[in-house]
């Protein structure tokens, strides 16, 4: 018995003096002192438990964090600039963005507090599920409203009108003042459509297209060939021979499917050479195919071979004669091949004319090209500027398709730099050619009689164009 009592006495202090396995903190030391040296059965220090969990895991704080904990909110950076805002759109955009940023921060803080306030206890958690769902729906609704406000602000900031007034040097007009139906004509007659702002393709060169065409207008004045070379330089060929040659070259372009730029450049090179060098009529066709060979090398992706041009002449000229003539033409022209032609201005002016319509009119493009090509065979149009011929072709094409409204508007006048009075003589002469059914040169007319050009060669205006000026 005594031995058993002694053993019991030895067991008591060993149980009471058991060393704790964890690090003793101040809270645990206080708990040990209160309980007489015994370890508490349950840990009630939430701060200590959170530290233990943080050491054992890289995750965030557990779900049993005190619900009174709130994340520190950042102060909203307000506008620190002292620059006055004169633009109403910019001012509205700034106010919307500042207001919506505050609402976003408020919504995020409520979500964070709601997430931190969730308790680990399953009973309390089930009680808060409904409140959490309601809060989430309310926050989503607010975020949708904020997104809509931000979208509105961005539209006010980034949207640019394509209409401007030339008197205000590019100041934009409200887009709501323009009524667009079948035509995109402005109620204000002085409003001009900016045709370059809508193009996103870098190949359109919309950023510096105005400078390009200003340079072309200056170049066409500098490199004009002599308009009376048939009297001063040439003695063996006539205007009719020149017309027959160009009419035949139109058929050659159709045969080899060459571009319009090649045809126009060919005619320009022929006229420039004839205005400087005398040539016999036996070599006139050689000059024509040689200039087309040079223009093909300049404009075409895959140019016809020298043998092809020799074949098209039925072997009249040899390969050596063509190459020798090519060398001579390039020497006379001093390799100045980049010259403004009618087609360069015509493409631009057609684009301007199409901007007046909601849907582009294909017949307008084909008819303007047809009228412009008719001038190639006429020596009388040789002394007119290419830009003037292109603008006159667009004028007459619009009048042929629609005799109700005046074909020239402020947009065309602004981009072409031609008024109606300046186009009068050229347009009247061009309409005479259009109505001439006794013309002996038929290559261009037969070309535009085809279905691929919508047979625009058959179109004529029932009303004369003279009273318009």
TrEMBL record:
Residue span(s) of domain Cyclin-like: 247-331, 344-432
GO BP terms: cell division; mitotic cell cycle phase transition
A Pfam family recorded for this sequence: Cyclin_C
Region of interest (Disordered), ranges: 1-22, 39-71
Biased composition (Polar residues): 1-20
Domain Cyclin C-terminal: start-end pairs: 340-462
Domain of life: Eukaryota
Keywords recorded for this protein, A-Z: Cell cycle, Cell division, Cyclin
Tagged with keyword Cell cycle: yes
GO MF, one annotated term: cyclin-dependent protein serine/threonine kinase regulator activity
SMART domains: CYCLIN (SM00385), Cyclin_C (SM01332)
InterPro entries according to UniProt: Cyclin, Cyclin-like_dom, Cyclin-like_sf, Cyclin_A/B-like, Cyclin_C-dom, Cyclin_N
Similarity comment: Belongs to the cyclin family. Cyclin AB subfamily.
Descriptive protein name: Cyclin N-terminal domain-containing protein
Organism ancestry: Eukaryota, Viridiplantae, Streptophyta, Embryophyta, Tracheophyta
